[in-house]
Amino acid sequence: MGLGLFSVTGATKALQFGLGPVQAILLGVITGVGGSMLRDVLLRQIPTVLREGLYAIPALLGATVLVVAQHAGSTNPVFPVLGAGVCIVARLSSWRYGINMPTALPGEQDTRPR
Asked: CA 40, CA 87: separation in Å to the nearest integer?
């Protein structure tokens, strides 16, 4: 729930300070992901965003819903709640169904010359 709240709040603040839509979406993602990374670091854990599941993509979706609605001229308070809800549903769905970002296989190594 924190991911959805922080991503929407970051995007809202960015729009209030006059940033453009793309910058507001990126700031919303950074705010959501950064807050969870800070939590994990304080708990002395490897950040969740680096370990498993979709994390930045749900934050991106939630921030995008809010920014698109506000960019279209709507100030209805339903859209921040909808943006946070989209983020939460996307994150929980990826967790429930085991959807992850692609990762390198354990046997694969970097073959670039050094």
From this structure: 19
Distances in Å between the alpha carbon of 14 and those of 30, 32, 56, 97?
11, 13, 18, 33
Return the CA Rg of the chain: 16
The position carrying tokens 């603040």 is 13
58: Cβ contacts below 8 Å, ≥ 6 apart: 3, 4, 7, 86, 87, 88, 90, 91, 94
The whole domain housing 37 covers 2-97
HSE-CB of 11 using CA atoms within 13 angstroms: 33
pLDDT over threshold 70, residue 64? yes
Look at the chain and report how many structural domains it folds into.
Answer: 1
In a domain, 114, yes or no: no
pLDDT digits (tens, 9 = 90+) for 77-107: 899 999 999 999 999 998 888 888 766 666 6
Q: Is residue 105 part of a domain?
A: no
107 in a structural domain: no
